Amino acid sequence: MTHVLLEKNGQVAIATVNRPNALNALNSAVLDDLNETLDAVAADEEIRVLVLTGAGEKAFVAGADIAEMSTLTKAEAEAFGKKGNDVFRKLETLPIPVIAAVNGYALGGGCELCMACDIRLCSDTAVFGQPETGLGITPGFGGTQRLARLIGAGMAKQMIYSGKNIKADEAYRLGLVNAVYPKEELMPAAQKLALSIASNAPIAVRACKQAINEGLDAPMDEAIVIEERLFGSCFETEDQREGMCAFLEKRKHEPYQNR
User: Fold this and answer.
1) Residue 112 is among the residues annotated as catalytic for this protein
2) Which one of 76, 132, 184, 228 is the catalytic residue?
3) Residue 64 confidence (pLDDT) above 90
4) CA spacing 20 to 30 A to 13: which of 2, 44, 102, 141?
């Protein structure tokens, strides 16, 4: 995998989209490497949190590769959109939490990529946008769907129809990102949050992600049944017994063992 670098530090992994000379633009090769990276992370039971970022000083991911897209036929474009959507959906449904550390431009496919993550942190130099209408196309990797779910249909329509970019402070105001940091503080903040999440019971964290993701697309009566089932499943784990015993005994719990 040359276009996505994977670094593992204990229970936290960092995946870096690595095409800085092209502002980390997403082409077919990058999508293939990202897909392979996600499979590797999912197969590693030691990894409890993934941080996703971009290489270089300018961009998280500046978009999909327009040079590759420019000559696509209708059928080829639909296939390219499906390829991106399949990878981003795999990211979104990865059992463990994913934190996007947005270190610069997150435009088009880059904005869509970070929206497929659970939590978005960004630098004060980050810029977000879905500029596709200015190129004669629509967002193709989930932008019309996830943006509306994150910031509401009205603001999503304004961003997508106008193709205008927004800066980090506006992204925070709209709820597109969870926090904004000076550039040099972004990765330490992302890793600190990742370590905090990784210290909690991993089966419970994964169950919370599943409950939220599945429940958002279900009516409330069905959603609470999803929660009840996952809540109950935690009571078959050693981590639940240790966590509650430690609380009752007024002591710090032992490191959770993921079982």
Assistant:
1) yes
2) 132
3) no
4) 141
